[in-house]
Design a protein that fits this description.
The protein is α+β, with helices and mostly antiparallel strands and 425 residues long. 25% of the residues lie in helices and 24% in strands. The longest helix is centred in the N-terminal third of the chain and has 25 residues, at 128-152.
Length: 425
């Protein structure tokens, strides 16, 4: 069999390494059938189950093959392998190209690689201006994944088939039906990969690295096709100003793994506290949803009454607000409001709500947005961030529910979900 050299790149960002198959002469390269021009073949894989034993294993398996351009890579270190089979790589030799990396075990120790993340604050700083470009790019990537979910998922009331959910590693679509199988797509903000998994056992991955939205779109569609999933989406992004079709978007190209991880860490805390707040309501309530259109996390309570028609509203808005609701959410900000914040609103808004007394004292009502806001920094710097969010959630809910004459006696379960975690019943 022909021998092909392989270089494993290890980026300074502690992101997952990529395996780049470097072509030999055209006649001797067994992978020519999937090569494209002068590009190389990148095999993305996860080290999570391998940990430090990675270097002591003779055989390695990979998750998927995608076309890459070797000239775009920036390599700090290389590990050389020879390929005897497309599914197996035999360790040949180790070649550390950059001085200063002497401890190979430490280099690839997953726990060491993420030591900074493990010690991160529960409520980390998230200044919008520091990650605006990453935020906008990630928003567009999420819209591509979200539109795939929307296209293939059966309709649910209030468009609840559309959102993502917070996972232990990032964001997940949850299982999506396709013909006689299920698949899901997960953003992993620890190892910084987009993971595609199917109920037939197939797995593919894409590295989350700086790349254009158009490149992300094409690579995602390619790995879907490689596992037999064919889907077409509306490539025009939703709920954004001046949208660029995702297959033509070479403007948004940024990805900062540190801030992507920070954003997810904030979502983890919000998800946890929102679920605690949700537990105190026994009427109809949404799950804690991450909406990829507006790029926010929200939980919504319903009175059970139909809401008045909204003249001029589009079909999506009409269905989303077909019934009386009170919502709580978190939003990372955007160019016109460059501050992460918690928000709360009632739809329809009862008379007198904007004058209501809300906790904590830093919360305020926006006449422009018709919502209450509590800046994220006021939460993270407070003595008890969890309780600060719960105070905001409960006080805005009570003000809106009382003014709208909700049947609180039959809709609420007093104290349930508002006690500290672990309290016995």
């Amino acid at each position: 069999n022909a021998v092909t050299l392989v270089a494993v790149t290890i980026l300074k960002t502690n992101m997952l390494p990529n395996i780049i198959i470097l072509p030999t002469t055209p006649s001797s390269n067994p992978l020519n059938r999937v090569r494209s021009g002068a590009g190389a073949i990148r095999i993305n894989f996860t080290l999570t189950p391998l940990i430090t034993s990675f270097f002591r294993q003779k055989w390695l398996n990979f998750l998927g093959v995608t076309i890459a351009n070797a000239s775009r890579a920036r390599y700090n270190h290389q590990l050389h392998f020879k390929v005897t089979d497309i599914g197996e790589l035999e360790l040949l030799k180790v070649d550390l190209l950059e001085a200063g990396w002497r401890n190979l075990e430490k280099l690839m120790d997953i726990n060491g690689a993420h030591q900074g993340q493990e010690k991160a604050e529960n409520w980390p700083a998230l200044p919008f201006e520091e990650w605006q470009e990453t935020c906008e790019t990630l928003h567009m990537w999420s819209q591509i994944v979200g539109k795939i979910r929307m296209e293939l998922s059966p309709y649910r009331n209030h468009w609840w088939q559309v959102p993502f959910y917070i996972s232990a590693r990032g964001l997940t679509t949850s299982p999506i039906p396709y013909q006689n199988l299920l698949f899901e797509i997960n953003f992993d903000f620890i190892d910084h990969i987009l993971l595609l998994q199917t109920s037939s056992g197939k797995t593919r991955a894409i590295s989350l690295i700086p790349r254009s939205v158009a490149d992300f779109y094409r690579e995602l569609m390619a790995i879907l096709a490689s596992v037999g999933i064919e889907v077409k989406i509306n490539t025009l992004p939703s709920e954004v100003n001046n949208p660029i079709r995702c297959d033509e978007d070479y403007v948004h190209t940024s990805y900062d793994p540190e801030y992507a991880n920070r954003f997810w860490q904030v979502l983890v805390q919000c998800d946890r506290v929102f679920k605690q707040f949700r537990a105190g309501f026994i009427g109809k309530s949404s799950p804690v949803h991450f909406f990829w259109g507006s790029f926010d996390l929200a939980v919504t309570r319903f009175s059970g009454k139909r809401a008045p028609e909204r003249p001029g509203a589009d079909a999506i808005t009409r269905e989303a607000y077909s019934h009386e609701v009170i919502s709580l959410g978190f939003w990372p900000g955007n160019a016109s409001f460059p501050r992460p914040a918690f928000y709360a609103y009632a739809a329809p808004e009862p008379e007198g709500l904007k004058a209501a007394t809300i906790q904590p004292k830093q919360a305020f009502y926006s006449e422009e947005m018709k919502e209450f806001f509590l800046l994220y920094d006021d939460v993270r710097l407070s003595e008890n961030p969890d309780q600060t969010v719960l105070d905001f959630a409960q006080s805005t809910y009570e003000a809106a529910a009382n003014l709208a004459n909700w049947d609180r006696t039959n809709l609420e379960a007093p104290q349930i979900g508002l006690e500290p975690h672990g309290t016995s019943v």
